[in-house]
Amino acid sequence: MPSLGLFDSVPNDYLQFGRGSSFDPKRVPTVLGLNKEDVSRLASVSVKSVRYDDAIPGQVRERLEEIANTINMVAEAFDGDIEKTVAWFRARNPMLGDVSPRDMIRLGRYERLRKFIINAMSDRAAQRQTTVAAKAH
Prior knowledge:
The protein is mostly helical.
């Protein structure tokens, strides 16, 4: 489990989105089942400008890279299990008002979801540290 400090590295690329020039922006909407309308909403661009080739708008690419990193953070919590990760994004979550994480992204509430995930992972890391400390005594 990576710590969540300011200068920590990006999680492993469990879902093989790629990074930098090898980033595959089409893979994110494919994994989450998002259409062009969803992508336009989450990147705040017109539907007509959503594309995944070399002419991808910067806003679209940046937002999809952010989401890819967030998906990989969740995958890290599932020890790299892709099926569990995708299932988590598609399942309704009572902690998110009975909305699935996928729908949070679709509906433009990505930042709220990202904060929820980071807080949950921080809590999980703190619990692990407490457990390790208790076993040491």
